[in-house]
């Protein structure tokens, strides 16, 4: 891993780890910014599913926060960085959607919220780049294509080799058959 990645990954992951831990510990903070009707609707939907009655939106937020913190740690340490970045992107965008109610705010509070949105968008952009970062290694698609090409070349070479051996065996069989035919006649 390059020096830049060693420094940049923990820096990019830090806000996600902190926010994930905060959400896992106090999910009420996340539900407080959501409209009450959304939380109640989500709770009703959960209770109409075969999921146990004990599961609530707060529990899902706790799990989401813990998953985001874990993915942040994985990304920061460079373990499965693309997968970890994809998980960060998924958990963050789900939690971020609908949280920012700028249209209800006025003045300095609105400007602060807009600044927060731009910061969050920048972090999401960084994570999106991390999802497609190959760290100098080829993508899985590229590796699969090369594997298929090598397999086809090997199969063609083996086919030629077998055809050559079959031709030699055929010629040998024809020669033996000719020898036997001479002996018989």
Automatic annotation (TrEMBL):
<protein>
    <recommendedName>
        <fullName>DoxX family protein</fullName>
    </recommendedName>
</protein>
